[in-house]
Each structure stands twice: as C-alpha cells, then as structure tokens.
Specification:
The complex is a heterodimer of chains A (336) and B (419). Chain A is mainly alpha-helical. Chain A is built from 23 helices and no strands. Helices cover 29% and strands 27% of the residues of chain B. Chain B has eight helices and 23 strands. In chain B, the strands form seven sheets. Chain B has a five-stranded mixed sheet. In chain B, strands 15-13-12-7-17 form a five-stranded mixed sheet, with helices on one face. In chain B, helix 1 runs parallel beside helix 2 and helix 3 packs across helix 4. The chains are: A mainly alpha (336), B alpha+beta (419). At the A-B interface, helix 2, helix 4, helix 6, helix 12 and helix 13 of A face strand 9, strand 10, strand 11, helix 6 and helix 7 of B.
Chain lengths: 336, 419
C-alpha cells in the first residue's frame, strides 16, 4: 500500500470529525509512532470534542512528551464550551484521565470537582477508564463505589435520563464489571431485562468478566435466546466462544453493525474461524464491516494478515477503511 | 387553484426583557442580529381554503395556535390552518413558555406574543391581496454536498452519542462505528407560478435538518432566514417558506466547529456559516428550478386527526392537504429521518412534502432501534411531563409514538388519494 502515512494524515485532517476520531484511534491502537507529532498537534489544536481519541492514542503509546500539552488541555481544552452538555467538560476529563493513565495526577483536582458534583461525565463516561487504572487515586475511588455508581440514575435533568439512557447505562455496566463489590453481579443481572439490546450486551460481557463460569454463561445464553436479537446472540456466542454462531452472524445478519461486531467477537475469542469469516467480510458492502475485518485480522494475525489485504487499497473508496489498512501496515505492533 | 403569499417581521421590540429559546442562555440578550419573520400562503380552490404559516419559533404551542386560529377565522371562517415552527433556537421563547414563567417578564412576553399575532394578521392580509391563479410543481431535489448531517454517532458497543455541532465525546476504549443512519440528502419543494411565467413567485421547501445556529446572544433567524435571504437575492419576487422535514436526528454539523469561544468570533462564525448555508441551499434550489414541471391543480382537500392527550402526553395532531396529485403532510415533533421513508412507502401520492413542528409541540420521536441506541434525543422523549414514570416506562410509552404518527398520516393519505 502506497502513501500509508499520507492516508492516515488525511484521515486526521478529514472534514468529518468521526473520521478524524477513527484515524487517531487507529494510530494509537496499532502504534503508528511515526505520526506522534501529528497526533499531538491534533490533540492540541483540533476543535471537535472527538479529538479525545488522540489523547487515548497518546496514552496507548505512552507518549510522555505529550504530558505538558495534556496538562494544559485539562484547564483549556481548546474546544467550544457547550456548558449545558458534556463535550467541553468531557474533553477536560479525557485529558485528566489520560494523564492518570500515564502516571501524572495533574488532572485529579478537576476529576474530583466532577466527582463531587456527581456529574455524568465522571460517574458514567469515564468511570470504566478510571476503574481500569492500575493506581486509582484514593480521593477518586470513594466516588466510584457500587453505591455511588448506581445511586445517580434518578438525578439531574430529564428525570436522570442523562444517567440512564442506554449509552450512559452501557458505561455503567462496563464499570460494574470492574468495581470491587460482589453485589455488582446482581445489578448486572438486573440489566439483562433492559429494553436496549446494547445495554443487555454490555451487562453480559461485564458479568462474564466478573464470573467467567458455566452458570453465568448459561444465564447469558438463556437470556439472549429469550431476547432473540442478533446482537444478544452474538454477545452470548462471544461469552461461550461459539465460533459457528459468530461466523453465521458475521455472514448473514441483516444489520451491518451486527456483522462487524461478530467479526470483532471472533477476534476477541481468538477463534481460528476469524480468517475465513474475516476474508469474506473484507468484501462486505458496508464499510464498518470491512474496517472491523481489517482490524481484527491484523490484530490477531499481525504482519501475516497483510496478505489478506493485497490489492484491497486499490479498490477501496472509504477513507476509514483506508486508514485502517494504513495503520495495520505502519503500526509497530498489533493492537490489543 | 389560486395562491397568495405574505410575510411579516416578528422581531421583539423590548428584546432586553426577553430571553431566547433553545439550549438555555448564560448571557443577556444584546438585541436583534437578523429579523425574525413568518410567512403565510393562502391557497384557494373552489370552496376550499387553506392557510399555511411557518413561524420563526422553536415550537408552536396551543395558546399561540389558538390565537392565530382565531385571527384566521376572522378573515376566512372556513379555512384550514396549517401552522408550523421552523425550530429556530435564537427566537423569542414566548411560544414555548407561558407569560410570567421562567426568566421572561410578563410585559416583554405579552408584547412579543402580540407582535407575532399582529404579524400573522398583516401577512395574512398581504397574502389575501396577493391571491392569483397558479400552476404547481413538486420535486425532491438531491443535496450533493454535506449540509444536514446525522447527529448520532454509533459506538462500538452499539449505543449512540451526540455528534451534533462540535461533538462527539467518545469514551475511552470505544471506537466509532459511524453514524446511526443517513444524512439529509434531499430538499422537497412545492413551487407555485402564475400560468405562462417561467419563475415561481412562491415556494414551500422542506429540508430534514435542524437549523441550529444558536449560542449567539442576539435574536436571529438562523439557517431558515439565511436560505430565505439567499433565495430573495436570486429571485426578488419569490417568497420562500422554509419548513422542516423529519429532522429529529439531523443537524447542521457541517457548519462546525466554532473557531473560538469569544463572542466576536462566535458571531463571525454564525454569519459566515449561516450565509454559506443559505447560499448553498439557494444554489441547489436554483439549479433545479429550470427542471420543474408545472401543471394546473383543480383539486384541494384537507383532513386532520387530533388524538387527545393524556395527563403526560400532548395532543397529537396530524394534517394532510391534497393539492391535485401532490400531498403535504403536517406532523408534530422532532421525528427521526427514518420515518420519512415510512411515510412515503408505496408512494401514496405523486409527491409528498412533510412539514414537522406543528402545533402539537411534541419533542423527539425516535425509531425503536433509536431508543435502544439511546443518546440525547431518547432521553428527552416525547412527553411533556415525565416525572412519575421511570425512564424505562417512559420509553415503552414513547416507543409507539413514531409508528402511530406514520400510521395516522398514511391513513389520511390513503383517504385523500384512494387507489
């Protein structure tokens, strides 16, 4: 593939901020260290909230020279202040969490401010990332208990809708998978009955993370069967390491998102079926499915996956897929 | 068929006593940057008369609709009134909040309301004087550039986050799967010209995108006004009525990001981007005008359905107007763009133009998958009062709203256009 570096650079500068976000993520996931200067520039000067993926990418590559810039971004994120919403505060929090991931606590006072306010940015959107920290600052830990995480659902505006809409609840379920409290299991099972398949899916994954035993897996499978959506089925199949079901969904699910997610799941369970399903998915009509296939094959098979992608860049029209191809080619190691 | 067009300025005079609608405000109103307006079309065919009005407001509430309805009946006792807002966030909040509430002063609010009512009467009188024989053309005009964009970004976990304006805030560990559904790639129009003329003198457009250019501390007419002005520049004798289609999940994200936080930069951004939108919009319409195929219309009929509200739900009003082989469907709320395709399934009429934000003052109306994906629109829901329902119960209740609107509208279309 020619000009892989230029493709990723153009992805970072693309007019669509969601393309920028993905280009930055891919640079970080596949460790394209040659583009660290561009990533730092993007993090500092880009005006869309989606630039936070550049912060995360810098953290994944442990780019310590970015720390002074991230410290400044905690105070001045250089984005428009949507004071009524979560973008401005979220970019500040993202910089603070990224700093913590790199061992710098300069952003803790701001996170504490959000924590004390019970702000949705803290208690939902960044709770899982904070709970994953190897050293969670003790002053923040007290705000990330099971009780604190779950008591906020009926707070604030829109009857607490900002805390309990499916996106926020998925983050809660992710956090519940990580919180050090056995009662979180029961709470996760409560979400097995949620109206959103995506909340249920995250509840399955988190419960499996906490209790990777046959009894839990059986509960997940039974619930997924009862719910009946492809997404329920694919997460249950992921939990059971059921490659056949995942391959079937990857190939035949009507929703492109389900097909792409099934490919991702085959990669997560390190299934040998990924090669066959992934190669088919490289020809999928949907760009997200193709992107999932490129990333998953590269993630699990490293440099050997490049042979699957031969000639693909010449006919690929979508910048996002081209960025994924470029990242897998330039990356110094496979993404985890 | 005959049609007359009228317009009126409805900017508030005592602007210092008023707040603006939409997204809340942190700083005092400084004045009027661009005049707010309303447009009125009067359509007549045999014994039938219809009055269509779009107002630069966030929503239309029942008291406003009642007053304007009364004024319509004073002049046209048997006319059908179709009344919609264009969901401008930089308009007076009077159509949303009753006098004396919030931070509005009663004096300023009452005065602003009266300006709207008087403006309507004036525009109606102007339209009645302007009535003339017309031919009608309808078209769905493709939008080849990025204007109205889907504002819900889908994450790798399947849920959505807001990608409006300067969005989206992607949480750590998540990838962005893309947008949850399509962008706004068309403008529906109905054009009216005098027989024998080449250019229309009145046009109703429907674009399925929020018009958002808020967060400037001035009353302003946002994208709708910019489109009207750009068309006026090209066609001085044309009155463009700018209505919104199914746009609950679409916004003008293409105009972002806002370059800096200071007020001067924000106003400069507003003017540059809203004018650019207006020019683009008018350019697309202008390019298509020569291709329109006009024909006389000898049939007009109207039907409406009003579903009485409950303690927590608004009345649901759906109206359909038949103009020959063309239909205008008028529905409430901020309905998701996916419903547009549902409305026109099996092509109930030769053309269909959808107007939203009618007097029912309904909030967001998501698809069932949209509710599962979550994000801002689904947490707002469709109800006026939600306090005693849990979010899950509320969603169950709201889930049916979109399908119900589509079903009623299609019922009306079938009645007006029997096979």
């Amino acid at each position: 593939m020619k000009n892989a570096s230029e493709i990723l650079k153009s992805g970072l500068k693309h007019i669509d901020p969601l393309v920028n976000a993905e280009a930055a993520r891919l640079i970080g996931d596949f460790h394209v260290r040659a583009l660290i200067p561009e990533l730092i520039e993007h993090a500092r000067f880009h005006r869309f909230y989606s630039k936070v993926t550049a912060f995360y990418a810098l953290s994944r590559m442990s780019v310590t020279e970015a720390i002074p810039h991230l410290q400044k971004l905690v105070d001045d994120p250089n984005v428009s202040d949507d004071w009524y919403w979560t973008g401005y505060k979220g970019v500040r929090a993202a910089a603070a969490v990224t700093l913590l991931q790199m061992g710098d606590d300069a952003g803790v006072p701001y996170l504490l401010e959000l924590a004390k306010a019970g702000h949705v940015v803290f208690i939902r959107w960044f709770a899982p990332a904070l709970l994953r920290l190897q050293k969670l600052p003790p002053e923040l830990a007290g705000y990330l208990t099971l009780e604190k995480l779950c008591s906020s659902e009926k707070q604030k505006r829109y009857d607490g809708g900002e805390y309990s809409e499916p996106g926020a609840l998925c983050m809660l379920c992710e956090a519940l998978g990580l919180v050090d409290d056995p009662a979180a299991d029961e709470r996760l099972e409560f979400y097995f009955g949620h109206y959103s398949r995506f909340v249920r899916g995250q509840a399955y994954r988190s419960l499996h993370l906490r209790r990777p035993d046959k009894t839990s897996a059986q509960k997940i499978v039974e619930n997924a069967k009862k719910q009946g959506t492809d997404f329920d089925r694919l997460v249950a199949a992921e939990v059971q390491k059921d490659s056949a079901t995942l391959s079937e969904i990857a190939r035949h699910a009507p929703a492109a998102f389900d097909r792409g997610s099934a490919i991702d799941a085959l990669a997560v369970i390190l299934s040998p079926s990924l090669i066959e399903a992934g190669k088919l998915a490289l020809e999928d009509s949907d760009l997200y499915v193709r992107q999932c296939a490129v990333e998953s094959l590269a993630r699990n098979h490293g440099a050997a996956a490049q042979k699957f992608f031969e000639g693909m860049a010449d006919k690929e029209k979508e910048i996002r897929v081209l960025c994924a191809l470029a990242a897998t080619q330039l990356g110094e190691k496979g993404a985890s | 068929m005959k049609l007359g067009a009228g317009t009126a300025v409805i900017s508030p005079k005592s602007w210092d006593k008023l707040t603006m609608s939409g997204m809340g405000r942190r700083i005092p109103t400084r004045g009027v940057l661009e005049d707010l307006a309303l447009e009125v079309f009067v359509l007549q065919e045999k014994d039938e008369t219809a009055v269509i009005c779009v107002v630069d407001q966030l929503f239309i509430t029942e008291p406003v609709a009642t007053n304007i309805g009364n004024r319509t009946r004073e002049r046209l006792p048997h006319a059908h009134l179709i009344l919609c807002a264009d969901h401008i966030h930089s308009a007076t909040a009077v159509a949303v909040i009753a006098p004396g509430k919030d931070n509005l002063t009663s004096d300023g609010c009452a005065e602003a309301l009266e300006i709207i009512y008087e403006g309507f009467s004036k525009a109606l009188a102007q339209a009645l004087q302007d009535v003339r024989e017309v031919e009608v053309a309808a078209a769905r005009i493709p939008v080849p550039i990025k204007l109205g964009l889907n504002r819900r970004a889908k994450l790798g976990n399947g849920t959505c986050i807001t990608a409006w304006d300067n969005g989206a805030l992607i949480p750590p560990g998540q990838k962005c799967a893309g947008k949850s559904s399509e962008d706004a790639k068309w403008i529906d129009v109905l054009a009216f010209r005098e027989p024998g003329r080449t250019e229309p003198f009145a046009m109703l457009s429907s674009y399925p995108s929020h018009v958002h250019f808020y967060e400037v501390p001035y009353f302003a007419d946002e994208a709708a006004g910019a489109a009207r002005r750009a068309m006026k520049k090209r066609y001085p004798n044309l009155t463009l009525m700018y209505a919104l289609g199914c746009c609950g999940n679409i916004a003008l994200g293409s105009a972002h990001p806002i370059p800096k936080n200071d007020e001067e930069s924000r106003i400069a951004w507003y003017q540059e981007k809203s004018n650019a939108f207006g020019e683009a919009f008018a350019g697309i319409l202008s390019d298509a005008l020569g291709e329109l195929s006009y024909a006389p219309v000898n049939q007009m009929s109207y039907t409406s359905h009003r579903e009485p509200g409950t303690e927590r739900e608004q009345d649901l009003q759906i109206e359909t107007l038949r103009l020959g082989s063309h239909a205008i469907c008028v529905i409430p709320g901020e309905i998701f763009i996916e419903f547009d395709a549902d409305l026109r399934r099996d092509k109930p009429s030769n053309s269909l133009l959808v107007m939203t934000y009618n007097r029912s003052f309904l909030g967001y109306v998501a698809t069932s998958l949209g509710f599962e994906e979550g994000s801002y629109e689904t947490m707002r829901g469709t109800a006026k009062e939600t306090g005693y329902l849990s979010p899950t119960e509320r969603v169950k209740s709201d889930l049916a709203t979109g399908d119900s609107i589509v079903a009623k509208a299609r019922e009306q279309l079938t009645a007006l256009f029997p096979k």
